């Protein structure tokens, strides 16, 4: 078998894909958008508290996940203003928090939306067939199990990739 390494460009010949001015502009735009999202969600959570809505509901958990996601993304992109190489060489915990945890939060948000939809469907079916009430508990367990499995795989991959990069 012939190796596919013959077509690789040497590292000395690599140049950035975008000029530094464009990169700085994109960093500023993303940081601003994530910060605006953060403050928008933060205001919505305060409105939930102010108007006395149910504090632990699908809506508040969804908003809390979005708030944490926006905060982590804003923090990551603000690091790029100061020192980009240092932001790419973080320790294991900051690396996981800034790069991997937002992916977990996105998965948890998707799982939460699917769980809400499943609950609506089950409640509609239980009115006609009461024996289906136990199915919702199984669905909740499956979603929690899938979320924990995703989190475990994500943390494991982050630790392994950080060890590999250190070597």
UniProtKB/TrEMBL annotation:
Annotated transmembrane regions: 27-49, 61-81, 93-117, 137-161
The organism of origin for this protein: Pongo abelii (Sumatran orangutan)
Gene Ontology biological process terms in this record: negative regulation of bone resorption; negative regulation of osteoclast differentiation; positive regulation of TORC1 signaling; regulation of autophagy
Protein name (database record): GPR137 isoform 11
Domain of life: Eukaryota
Subcellular location: Lysosome membrane
Topology in the lipid bilayer: Multi-pass membrane protein
Plastid listed as a keyword: no
Coiled coil: none
GO cellular component terms, semicolon-separated: lysosomal membrane
Record keywords, A-Z: Lysosome, Membrane, Transmembrane, Transmembrane helix
InterPro entries in the record: GPR137
Major location category of this protein: membrane
């Amino acid at each position: 078998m012939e190796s596919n390494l013959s077509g690789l460009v040497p590292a000395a010949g690599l140049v950035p894909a975008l000029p530094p001015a464009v990169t700085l502009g994109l960093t500023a735009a993303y940081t601003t958008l994530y910060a605006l999202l953060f403050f928008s969600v933060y205001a919505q959570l305060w409105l939930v508290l102010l108007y006395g809505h149910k504090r632990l509901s699908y809506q508040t958990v969804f908003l809390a996940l979005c708030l944490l996601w926006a905060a982590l993304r804003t923090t990551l992109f603000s690091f790029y203003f100061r020192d980009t190489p240092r932001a790419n060489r973080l320790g294991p915990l900051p690396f996981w928090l800034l790069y991997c945890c937002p992916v977990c939060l996105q998965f948890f948000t998707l799982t939460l939306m699917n769980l809400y939809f499943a609950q609506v469907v089950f409640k509609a079916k239980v009115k006609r067939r009461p024996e289906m009430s136990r199915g919702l508990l199984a669905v909740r367990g499956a979603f929690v199990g899938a979320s924990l499995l995703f989190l475990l795989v994500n943390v494991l991959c982050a630790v392994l990739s950080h060890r590999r990069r250190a070597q």
